[in-house]
Amino acid sequence: MTWADVLTEPTRKPSYPTRPTYTPPQVRLHNPNPIPSSYAHYTHPRFNSTQLGQPSSARGRGYGRRYSSTTPRWTAKSPTQIPFEGIHIADDTINNETNVGVGSASAINFDAYEDIPVEATGDNIPPPVAAFDDIDLGEGLNRNIRRCKYVKPTPVQRHAIPIAVAGRDLMACAQTGSGKTAAFCFPIICGVLGTPRSHFVDGTRVAYPLALILSPTRELSCQIHDEANKFAFKTGVRVVVAYGGTPISQQFRKLERGVDILVATPGRLVDMIERARVSLRKVRYLALDEADRMLDMGFEPQIRKIVQQMDMPPPGTRQTMLFSATFPNEIQRLASDFLSNYIFLAVGRVGSSTDLITQRVELVQEIDKRKHLIQLLRAQKANGNHGKHALTVVFVETKKGADILEHWLSMHGFPAIAIHGDKVQMERERALRSFKSGATPILVATDVAARGLDIPHVAHVINFDLPKDIDAYVHRIGRTGRAGKSGLATAFFSDKNQSLARALVELMQEANQEVPSWLFQYAESSTYGSTNRANKPGGSKFGGYDFRYGAQSGSDTSYHLSAHGNVESSVDSYAASPGAVCCSVPANSDYYAAASADSYETPASSEYFAVANDYNYSLPPSAECHAAATEDSYGSVVPSGWD
DNA sequence: AAAAAAT
């Protein structure tokens, strides 16, 4: 089979590992567990089922039955419906349908959806909600949620929103693309709406944001700002973004017009605070996106400075929410300095889109990499897969390497553009635009593009240079396979990557991927206790576990290991899912049928959109919808009813 | 040792 075949190969029938039994919240809450109490939906390695407070046979479904298991096909909806893009949408174009589907028979198995494993630990955990309406988020916000066509909350939203609205601090593990941004934006906007706002309090030009959202890259801050703005549309809540590489004066002007929610990268924020143009004195909500990245070696001092050494109210007097796909123990420990009596939440996905990403590893020595890449891209092109729909991201290790490869690809007839931190911001944004539009369907990127960015139509992620860290790999390949589409991730493995072998093997096995035998050999010969997180205690590649449990028992180190080391089916299925490469789609074979029918060689079919759109939690508010509907540079088939 | 993030 050629590489190109892999792209066109019909999506593999996902094999579902044994799923843990769902525990209804009303039952879970009666759980007499010690503090921190737990409502693990699956049999946690630490707690056998008897500790869940009832015989396992009594743990059934029921919660999910509250939904009518119906699927209004989007074709049945008002033809005036268009994706919500903020400003230019008149209210009357919005279909006011409720969150609960009515009518026709359903192809969606809600029980499967309910099985998505969730672990929440901490004191007095607010129960999850089934619908956005179950929590009073305010009329304005509810209207925007409908505009975004969020039919019902994603798993992470169902759990995180009630926790956040209750004012609790939160540490949440959930993959980017699973509706994480909304999960912290909704409660923040809701909270800001309920807070008396008075800008320019003291007649100076100091801005006093009520909420601060920090992210590790400028582009990601932009993306969050756009989302938040959309959610805050016509609510009177003002969202401003601040990041480097662009004139600060313009950002000051925005601040002067009033700011409630400030989205920022750390450097620029510190600058603004030091110039006394921003004060954190009134911050009531603090959110860190990609929190593990924000607290790792490179960022930690800056974050500590912002959170602890400026005028930010201390934990307990502000609400702090940390979101990330991965939460290593060490990072949890650091993070707990910023939190007060927090709830730890890990949301996974059954039959996660890992199943939709085919992971391949090729043994390629450094010297052969470029040649190999060209061959790979040629095969892809020959197979008709490199048309307007298929975008490819090529990850490299260094900025210089990115430039070199961009040039090399262009020389060989592959329109490529590089993005990395040595480019000026204008170039970075231009590169991203050029890539998204399909003008240069190959993006050569450093890790600047590894996290959080939601780029529709990425069919293929190539790890030209593998990262040192398996987390980075998880984040990188998560750029594809989004919104229920199949994706391909190819890695060039060289002798240099030996230390990654073991973690890579484990990851691929958990995701039911074929592991080449030579890779097993690398894994075996690699030294135990290498730099891979998977080899270290606490090395949870997927989401994580509340480190407070480990601390309680005093066996902090072996606990996490056993969670992933044991190939116990229920645990394993959990491990495989939050891992998470990608979007949270309903785990349902019909869904997959529809989604897989739409692989990248064919334009998105309207049937695909029907399913994806109704189960909107696979789609970020409008990035995907909007792209599909308007970016005809892809030559997309635009579903009827969309402008 | 690299990338990111302020000027």
TrEMBL record:
GO molecular function, one term: RNA helicase activity
E.C. numbers: 3.6.4.13
Pfam family, one: Helicase_C
Residues making up the signal peptide according to the UniProt record: none
Keywords: ATP-binding, Helicase, Hydrolase, Nucleotide-binding, RNA-binding
Domain DEAD-box RNA helicase Q: 130-158
Motif (Q motif): 130-158
Domain of life of the organism encoding this protein: Eukaryota
Domain Helicase ATP-binding: from-to ranges: 161-345
Residue span, Helicase C-terminal domain: 372-523
Cited SMART domains: DEXDc, HELICc
UniProt region (Disordered), positions on chain: 1-78
Family: Belongs to the DEAD box helicase family. DDX3/DED1 subfamily.
Name the record gives this protein: RNA helicase
Highest classification ranks of the organism: Eukaryota, Viridiplantae, Streptophyta, Embryophyta, Tracheophyta
